[in-house]
Amino acid sequence: MNLIKLAGLFALLYSTSVMAIEPFTIKDIRVEGIQRTEPGTVFSYLPVKVGDTMDDEHATASLHALFATGFFKDVELKAEGSVLIVVVKERPTVASVEINGVKDFPKSQLLDNLKYVGLAEGRIFDKSALEKSENELKRQYIARGKYSVVVKTTVKDLERNRVAVSFNVEEGSASKIRLINIVGNKAYSEKDLLDTMQLTTPGWFSWFSKNDQYSKQKLSADMESLRTFYMNSGYMDFTIESTQVSISPDKKDIFITLNISEGDKYTVSDIKVAGTQAVLSHEEMRKLIGIQPGDVFSRDAITESTRKIGERLGEEGYAFANVNAAPEIDKAKHQVAFTFVVDPLQRAYIRRINITGNDKTRDEVIRREFRQMEGGWFATSKIKKSKQRLDRLGFFSDVNVDTSPVQGTGDQLDLNLKVAERSTGNFSIGAGYSSLEKLTLMAGVTQSNVFGTGNSLSTQINTSKLNQVYSVSYTNPYYTDDGISRGFDVYKRRTNATQITVSQYTSDTYGAGVRYGVPITDDQMFHYGLSFEQTTIGLTSLSPQRFVDYINTFGPTNRNELGTIGWSQDTRDSAIFTTEGVMQNSYIELSIPSSDQRYYKWTYQNQWFHPLSRSFTLMTNANFGVAGGYGGMPLPFFKNFYAGGVGSVRGYDPNSLGPRDINNYSLGGNKLAVGNIELLFPMPGMEKEKSLRLSAFLDGGEIFGSGGQVPGTDGMRYSTGLALTWFSPAGPLKLSWARPLNKQPQDKIQNLQFTLGSMF
């Protein structure tokens, strides 16, 4: 019997002499030692088959191929006559993977990460994957600033050639930045430079923002912020020469040193414009340049100027225009001149608009908001307007628009729109608490994108002590193809002022109406409508005499036909995360002369948003109203204006401001004036979360009317406080805490208030 044993891969590769094999023709191949692996798998990897000649070269190749599979930790080849015997010893499989001691991460997340590096239950055990897994666990913690993390690995052999792998993690505490040192600064103090950086040493709010924990990505961003600061201040030769990051021996403290070279401060000596004048004249381009001779050099000003020129060319369809600001530097005089070289290239038009991400919303609902048309010349402003209109729908949490050249052409672009849909159906509730009303509740169900059609359907059920409302509203924003909207409303309202601070009466109103909206421009609409109401008034023994006199004159039940005319404008950049723009509306409600009552009611609201920086937005809100009777009839008292509480002057009981009767109940009034100033800013540490914002506010308001019998109830009321706004899955939540600034003894206070599902 001939027996040839090849001692393994290393002997084949590195031994100086290898036992020679007497060549033979393979008549059969037999595999021994396998437990999990199928014989066919071994045969598929072998480079020889029955009928081939087995020699030294084929033996070496066979060992290489079987070891390369990673299935086996040892392989031997034997020959018995003309039979090739492959003897293998399989690697063990992973029976289980456990991670112990983890608090900062969900275990499922870490186990998923280990799968990517090759370690998971059921896979073949590989020591290299084990080492990678240990490093991956450490990397996760180091990314969170926990440099002292310790990972201990245990591998336990089990029966049936299996192993159990366990990782015992000692997380330790996060390393803190104890010192950030900037070397080489002369023009600015270290404090001024540190203010431009996100990383910081431990402070009052660093526990929340985690900015006192070192991150390579954050440091890179801070270095760019520092560079931008100097470049916008004239120091165009500014460089960061070196960066040193060191950690203390106990791995608890981190020290950062930045060595910088400021260079000299440069001013702009000249601005020139070069290139074709076929599209834009040099004079028009100069008006778009925001930096002039004598100004201090600013990189952002140059970048902004090139952007404006590019956008202006884009308005004419030149989407591929090249705009470059070529510098001419005079180092001796510390001056720089710029020549804006403009090449419009070829005019382009939009071939196709591609929409993705709208699993629910229909394509036509999105396309009808587009002002950039397929087949039309590319226009920057039309694309921006299209995105703005989609943002204002409120159907999407994110809207991204980009363009891509059409291959094989030089004058065509595809417009690619990607949206992320948000929940447009919500169950909304509102609540407030006071010593008088205790807890008041309201609820409603709204679907602003019914079946993806863009139509709105809402129902409201309000069971508060003041208002009981049952209503259904339906709106089709595109009743006609040119954008005329139509809506219907059916409602039942019961007002019960006997339980709150409003003068004592009850009213039951049944109504139905139709309304239309006609677009004037992309941002403005004209509104009109007609509705019918029947109102029944009930009085109590505490009702003021003026209410009794009114009922005695006009009766407890009145039927009215009401006409409404209005105008609205909306230029906000987004309905969810507004940073700039205006939203205003003005409405007149007028009872038709054939009605039982004759009155008018005019309201006006203006909201203005202005970005102060990337993070801070200033919002102002103004509400005004005037109402009265005509034709010799007075204004119905149940149509009075009220103020106080969420949506007007926070910190005061709802509807509690203005004149009061002898029992200290609010009478309301025929004039309303409310103003709000609010500074909006992101939650610290959650700057990228667009659905959550904080604000500091100042509110003021007054109700004007005659007949008040409680001294000290007239005059403006002011309050200030903090608010949190969150566009939650259930609807927008606004929580506020307010402190009245000029509280009077008769005022009723409600410091903490919140609404879920409605905003003002």
TrEMBL record:
Q: What range(s) does the POTRA domain occupy?
A: 24-91, 92-172, 175-263, 266-345, 348-422
Primary location recorded for the protein, binned into one broad class:
membrane
Q: Does the keyword ATP-binding apply?
A: no
Give the keywords, sorted. Cell outer membrane, Membrane, Repeat, Signal, Transmembrane, Transmembrane beta strand
**Where is the protein situated, by its record's location annotation?**
Cell outer membrane; Membrane
**Gene Ontology annotations of biological process type:** Gram-negative-bacterium-type cell outer membrane assembly; protein insertion into membrane
Family annotation (NCBIfam families) = OM_YaeT (TIGR03303)
The annotated subunit structure for this chain is: Part of the Bam complex.
* Record's function text: Part of the outer membrane protein assembly complex, which is involved in assembly and insertion of beta-barrel proteins into the outer membrane.
Q: What is this protein called?
A: Outer membrane protein assembly factor BamA
